[in-house]
Amino acid sequence: MTDEDTRFGTEVLVVGSGAGGAPTAALLAEAGFEVLVVEEGPLVRQGEVVPFSLAQMDRQYRAGGVTAALGLPSIAYTEGCCAGGGTEVNSGLYRRPPEEVLERWRRDHRLVDFDLAEVDEIAGEIEAELSVQAVPGAQIPASEALRRGAANLGWRHDESPRWMTYPDGPDARLGRRQSMTETFLPRAERAGARLVTGLRVDRLVLDGGRAVRAEATRTDDGRPVSIDLDHVIVAGGAIQTPALLQRSGLRRNIGRSLAVHPTVKLAARFADRVNVPDDVPVHQVKEFAPDLSFGGSASNPGLVALALSDSWDRFRDAIADWERVVVYYAAITSEGRGRVHAVPGFRDPVVTYRLTRRDKAVLGRGLSRLALVLLEAGATDVYPSYRGAPVVRTPSDLATVEATFAVGRASVMTVHLCSTVPFGEIETSATDSVGLVRGTTNVRVHDASLLPDAPGVNPQASVMAVAIRNTRRFVETLTPGRKAVT
Amino acid sequence: MSRLSPPVAPFSDQLLALDLPDLDEDRRRQVVAFVARRVDGLPSPMKAGVTVVALAVDGLGRALGRRRVVGVLGRRPLPVLGEYVRLVRSLAYAFIWETWPDTTPTGGRPVSERQRANHQASSSAHWCTTANPHASPDARVHQ
Q1: How far is the C-alpha of A391 from the C-alpha of A315, rounded, in Å?
Q2: pLDDT, tens digit (0-9, with 9 covering 90-100), for A246-291
Q3: What SS3 class is residue A279?
């Protein structure tokens, strides 16, 4: 064992390498800072695992993808745990942060120097960096079905662009996702940043409000590692970031306001073979946005079985026809909130979430309307994912869905986790307007934790935009003489 | 508590026997091993909770008969215990149909497969090979 294995020193430590950490590291390294990025998970290159498979969950998700926020009902969620974080495992859908959401954050959280035009400009830079674009040519049939159903109803719908590059030719499925390991992480390394994977930061050691060291553990053999630092930027995501701060003794307004987009699902069977197991639909139905949005999920046969499992005794025959079955979701903007608690003696935090009565009602309404879209799209059978659900074959069956749906019987899940370390200048803010944790002089947060609430769209563009904006402020404030950060 | 491995295997085995009566013993053993491995890797507070429930269910099974207890829990979703059943069931089903997509709704092998040589390895991942040229089909086999 060398000293290099157990002791690091750096000017800026970035904890986490996802949508917040990777752009932060790239910009800081390019500005001339010495940057060390530590990532708990492994580096897994695209193509090493099948997208949305159990193998991917084993290698790139925390706890194999089996994580839940406790409550009535509990809400299953997933966290990426690999170099690149959630950007490596999601479907690459991109949504620029809505202007009204940014304005609400600026106004309600009294964000200082939060210029909407600047965020918009940064979003443009991100889109260029990640090659954000619509699918060239034909879309997968499951996506086309969603478009067709919404169009038949006269409901608002659109295609979500993705961070993808596509080769010339007709088959859009050959695209390559422009996740962090393809974009900002290589850019950071080219500028001199070091990336260390398989290293979990257990806590920050503070001296009078100043972090001086990070104590970490190697995930392969459990060996302790110490990292001396001048500045630390925590970007471990909305669950791990507050947990790390709490373990470090920082608790003010931290971990108390988890926001998510709760989601319910159904499976729809069509006459044709519509299932493309390793891709997802890009069309979304926005007629009821931001309260409700509909989209398509990964639908490999294992995930189809999962969607059918709540009423297996009546739905099970559909699994024999999985190539004609696709899973879709209804996601809501929730009024509920959750908490993240780091509990002494436990390695992982306890996560809780409480849906409001309104949330539960909107989820039920959403499932029924989603079923209607799919009937309009030509689905022959629709299987809502809750215990005791009927098979929906005509619009008249939807009355039964509305009468029998209870959120406690449903498999509720989410993939968008935000707001556990909210930034701003109000009583409940955990950091200032640029992510500096209250009560500290050099501990910053640059990830989804900062967003004051769940934005009603995929939050990763918002996370990147806020991280880049805050990194620029950090550089400007700290070292006005350094070269400009672009 | 979180270092203990929850005793999920006996419960999983019995639940699968009831839910999917045609799932053969070899496959059932693989599925049970997968469920146990995933439960063992749960975040520590969740694992502690699941361990308590699994111990209680295991104790009930020993006292009242495992088949009877699993039968009741499988049919009647009770608070907390129902979540345990859902966890085991969802892990098991996801594994079965991802690994052997042609499995029948009762857990059996399709007729065409049974007719093939018994020794031939089943195709576990044909869905992934055509749509994604970057994918390695071997990487997703959990055996």
Answers
A1: 8
A2: 999 999 999 999 999 999 999 999 999 999 998 899 999 999 999 9
A3: coil
Whether A406 and chain B come into contact, CB under 8 Å, resolves to no
Nearest 5 degrees, angle CA B36-CA B40-CA B46? Answer: 120
Q: Which residues are CB-contacts of A278 (< 8 A; sequence separation ≥ 6)? A: A50, A51, A52, A53, A298, A300, B127, B128, B131, B132, B135
Contact flag B136-A67 (C-beta cutoff 8 Å): no
Burial class (CB in 10 A: 0-12, 13-18, 19+), A173: middle
Q: What is the ipTM of this complex?
A: 0.92
A444 contacts A435 by C-beta, under 8 angstroms: yes
Can you tell me the distance from the alpha carbon of A421 to that of A118, in angstroms, rounded to the nearest whole number?
Answer: 22
Separation CA A332–CA A293 (nearest Å): 6
Q: At what angle do helices B81-99 and A301-308 cross, to 10 degrees?
A: 150
Q: How many CB pairs under 8 A join A and B?
A: 134
Q: A203 near A215, Cβ under 8 Å?
A: yes
**Residue A71 in contact with partner chain B when CB distance is under 8 A:** no
Query: How close does chain B come to A277, measured CA to CA in Å?
Result: 6
Tell the residue number behind the tokens 């507070």, with chain if given. B45
Cβ contacts of A121 within 8 Å, gap of 6 or more: none
Q: Which residues contact A63 (CB under 8 A, 6 or more apart)?
A: A348, B41, B42, B43, B46
Q: Name which of A116, B20, A32 is nearest B28 in CA terms.
A: B20
- The residue of B37, B95, B102, B128 whose CB has the most chain A CBs within 10 angstroms, and thus the best one to mutate to test that interface, is B128
Q: Give, for all 486 residues of chain A, the pLDDT tens digit.
A: 455 678 999 999 999 999 999 999 999 999 999 999 999 999 999 989 999 999 999 999 999 999 999 998 999 999 999 999 999 999 899 999 999 999 999 999 999 999 999 999 999 999 999 999 998 888 899 999 999 999 999 999 999 999 999 887 666 667 889 999 999 999 999 999 999 999 999 999 999 999 999 999 999 999 999 999 999 999 999 999 999 999 999 999 999 999 999 999 999 999 999 999 988 999 999 999 999 999 999 999 999 999 999 999 999 999 999 999 999 999 999 999 999 999 999 999 999 999 999 999 999 999 999 999 999 999 999 999 999 999 999 999 999 999 999 999 999 999 899 999 999 999 999 999 999 999 999 999 999 999 999 999 999 999 999 999 999 999 998 765 554 454
Q: B105 and B19 in contact (C-beta within 8 Å)?
A: no
Nearest Cα of chain B lies from the Cα of A304 at a distance, in angstroms, of 8
Within a 10 A sphere around the Cβ of A5, how many other Cβ atoms? 10
Nearest to A349 by CA among A21, A70, A82: A70
- Residue A345: both structure tokens together: 């003696």
Identify the three-state secondary structure at position B103: coil
Would you say B21 and B107 are in contact if contact means Cβ atoms under 8 Å apart? yes
Is A416 one of the catalytic residues? yes
Q: What is the pLDDT of residues B1-28, one digit of tens each?
A: 456 678 999 999 999 999 999 999 999 9
- Whole-angstrom Cα distance, residue A235 to residue A35? 14
Q: Give which of B89, B134, B141 to mutate to test A binding, by max A Cβ within 10 Å.
A: B134
- Pick from A51, A20, A53, A49: nearest CA to A37: A20
